[in-house]
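Predict structure. Chain length: 421.
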Amino acid sequence: MSAHRKFFAALFVSLAAIAFSLPAMAAEVQPLADGKTAEFPVENPQWSGSSDGLGPIVERPDFRPKGTSTDLSFSGPFSFAIANGLVDMSVGRVDNDSPGGSISGTIELWLWASTTIPTGGTINGYALTKWRPSTWHGTNGNQLMGGYQVSNIDLTNLPYTAPPANCYYISILLEEWNGSEFVYHDYWTYTTEAFGLGGGSCVGPPSSPSGLTAMATSSSSIDIFWNDNSDNEDEFRVEISSNGSAFQDIGSVSANSIGASITSLNPNTTYSFRVRAYSNADGYSGYSNTASATTLSDSACVNDLNNGVVCLRNGRFELIGTWTDFSNPPVTNPLIWTPQQDINATAGFQNNPSGIQIVMRVADACSLTGTYWLWLGGFTDAGWDITVRDTVTGNSRSWIRTRSSGNFPTTTRDTATFSCN
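Prediction complete.
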């Protein structure tokens, strides 16, 4: 429990996901197929520190006379260890420098936790354990005669009382009963590091994830990706909004994840996302940036490459093409498409499926003009009819070229028809 120590004036956790459903939108958070490996907490953590090594843990009082001085004091080496609900503690020597024959009050050694490094005066904090001697001087063996010292005070398996969850510095206090309360005469603090006690931590909240992006993968799913900037999170919480402002928590993916797949969404709908890290010990990070994407329409594109249909930009754009030969009467057949990349496709004729006759490209220029740019070029004087449909917005455009022997087309570009919304 909390206390105020007075100065005696005269003298320190394969990626698992949990899916949650929303009332209005049954979105679910799923782990991506790949990602980082999760970290696991160390069992039975031990906090320890010393001004020298922790020696044999036995009580070995060694009395010998001292010269006269004025007060109780102690000196190192000091050490402590907290593990599995018990405390070990060691003090090199306790001295009573009062004149010979003057006996002290009852003496205790306290292991003390404070949120700041003590600098004298009142030391606020919590007692983790206390120990009182029984074989020194005085009526009950818990006092020390003036002019004497006790050395090699090594203690083990003292009971441990956890303080409220927080980050603490650890001190050893030399206490004396003054007739009404215990006051400290001397103290030593382990200043090398602080310790998270009572379930607390000294790490602080996780760093915020950054660089969040979103990409529609179907009419009912969107994948999101982010940068993991923290090393103490237990999970990442994902929030969704269908209007860009009212966000709802829809679940989590495990520590060290760098993305998630959001499923069970509505088709042709724009969703916004944000992510934050969470630590069981240290709480929430700040939010990432917000990222948005629009699910594909229900009439999503399906590749049928040998029958004139090819899908680009993760299925958002559907290209349907035919070509017309020079026979009399002319014959029209499906183009045979080959996707070279997700943004490019080439097509050959039915009588020469391996030959590249037409090239089509769809580029993302949303950050420049708010539209997708399309290029269409050919290496043939045959006729063609190509229709491009945006499965998200429903916009479409057709390019029809009449066959013309010996005349070859120039490249066509469209930068305005297909908006990014």
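Summary: Residues 141 and 236 are 57 Å apart (CA to CA).
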